[in-house]
Each structure stands twice: as C-alpha cells, then as structure tokens.
Amino acid sequence: MAINFPSSPVTNDTFLAPNGIEYIYTNGKWAPYKPIEPTVGNITATGAINIAAGGSNQNITLTPSGSGSVITNSPLAVNNSETITGSSAVLTVDKTTGNYGDAIRIKSGAESAGNPFMFIKKETATSFTIGGYGAALEGSLLLSFPSGVTSSANLTVNGTLSATSKSFVIDHPTKPDMKLRHGSLEGPENGVYVRGRLTGGSVIDLPDYWTGLVDASSITVNLTPIGRSRDLYVTGVTAERVWIDGDEVDCYYTVFAERKDIAKMVVEYEAE
After folding, report:
1. What was the pLDDT predicted at 22?
2. Nearest 5 degrees, angle CA 77-CA 79-CA 47?
3. How far apart are the C-alpha atoms of 144 and 147, rounded to whole Å?
C-alpha cells in the first residue's frame, strides 16, 4: 500500500500514516519513528546519543529530580536553542534567538529586573561581552580564580573597577629575563594631575578639558624652585590656568584636582 507523505517536509517533522505507523523525516527521507520510551535510570552509550524534538519550536529539557544535576564528561554541542535545567539554576545556550544571540545565559527563575541573569555574548568573530541584566546586579561582576585572571588584550570597563591592589607588570626594560612591577598611587578621591616646568613665565595653562573634568575648588599646586631657593607663590587658580608670581620664575610644578564628572568616592562604607 503506497503512503502519501506530506510534501516539503523539514528535518524532524513527523507523520502518522493510515497504517498506524508514525514516521519521521530525517537525513532527507521518511523513516519509521522509534521514540525512546521514558526510563528511570541511566542511558549509557560508547558513542553519540542524538536526541531530537519533533516539529518546530520544540525544546529538549534535561531535568534531574531532587538535588540531582546534569553532568557531562565531554563537550556539550548545542546547535540552536536548548535549555539545561538544574535543581536551582538554568543554563541557556541561545545561538540564534532572543536579544542575546550567540550567548551563554546563567539565571535562576524568570528573567526580570529583580531577578537578574548574566550572559556571555559573541559580538563579532573576535570579541565577546560579559554582562548582566537586572537591578539586583547593581553592575557587579565577581571573577574568582585561584591563579588569577590573565588577559592578553585590551579590557574596557564601563563602570567602577575595584581591586585589593592595582599594578602594571611589563618585561624589564634593562634587565633580560626579569619583570618590572609598579603599584598604583592611591588616595581618598578620584584625582587627576598635570606636571611640568615653568621658566620665565607666570601662567601654567591647564588642559582645555579640565573645565568639564575637574572641580576647580579642589585644585592644589606644588612648586619646586630650580637651581636655588626662590620666593614663588600662587596668585590665582581656575580650571583653565594657574597664575604664579615671585622671584625669577623657574620651577617644576604639579597640579592636582578631583574629578567632577563622576560621584565623589565613598571612602568608608558598611561591608556587604
């Protein structure tokens, strides 16, 4: 008896024939469908196990009972949009759908501002974004690795970067097979500075962008006479320039100021 199968099928479409046999369209042809019956226990194989959901818009969900978990000792390949559900959290790998395509999404429960999630998103062929959504995140990302985190590329942080210590490490400029480390100078403010030498003049011109960057009332000036002791002093200060007067001006100077484009630093606060 000839079976008239549906025309223009797509992979994993199913069809119940008049003879009572269910067929599935796979590998370019219709074949009898033999679903895996639900079992209690383990499914073990020495080769690959392929589990396909029938029809479109179907997901495959692995849900352990009790305090169990989904464990794999080999790479987990995801071709579209599948969800692995654990006892207290959900890992979503979503390559083609949603607002965060090509992403690994970690969440617990429904996504909302009060119930945040973190995602790793592929932006281009060579760049990724690690981010999060939800007010409860407060812009926080904690990276915890026993041996530290190493990056061989540029790192951009659109927010606040906090650390127990901050330093740079480079190849030693004069001693082969050595490294050079310098720590960051720190203080109770978000400070900036300029420095230089003033000879014969009476005005230190500050960077033009300081008018929008610094609080003019926070500016302080250090002067160091060159060659001999000199009677030098500051007569005026704005965010644009500093005026100097005294005996034959020839000095090194350093000008400090506090940024005004961001909130003042909270130096002491309650531990979380």
Report:
1. 87
2. 40
3. 9
- Quote the strand ranges of the chain, DSSP E: 14-16, 22-26, 29-32, 61-62, 81-85, 90-94, 103-107, 117-122, 128-133, 167-171, 179-183, 191-199, 203-205, 214-225, 232-237, 241-246, 250-259
SS (H, E, C) 45-107: CCCCCCCCCCCCCCCCEECCCCCCCCCCCCCCCCCCEEEEECCCCEEEEECCCCCCCCEEEEE
Angstrom distance (rounded) from CA 186 to CA 197: 24
Cα–Cα distance for residue pair 191/257, rounded to 1 Å: 6
Burial 78-101 (b: 16+ CB within 10 A, else e): eeebbbbebeeebebbbeeeeebe
Write the CA distances from 141 to 160, 161, 223, 234, integer angstroms. Answer: 10, 10, 42, 45
Q: Is 153 helix (H, G, I), strand (E, B) or coil?
A: coil
The whole-number average pLDDT for the span 22-47 is: 71
In terms of DSSP H, where are the helices of the chain? Answer: 210-213
By three-state DSSP, how is residue 220 classified? strand
Is the pLDDT at 73 greater than 70, yes or no? no
The pLDDT of residue 40 is 56
Instruction: Please tell me the pTM assigned to this model.
Output: 0.54
How many angstroms separate the CA atoms of 213 and 191, rounded? 10
First to last CA, the chain: 74
- Residue 161: CA atoms inside 13 Å, Cβ hemisphere, count? 6
**Is the Cβ–Cβ distance between 156 and 148 less than 8 Å?**
no
Picking from 130, 190, 127, 119, the residue whose alpha carbon sits closest to that of residue 154 is: 127
Q: Is the pLDDT of residue 170 over 80?
A: yes
Q: What is the mean pLDDT of residues 266-270?
A: 92
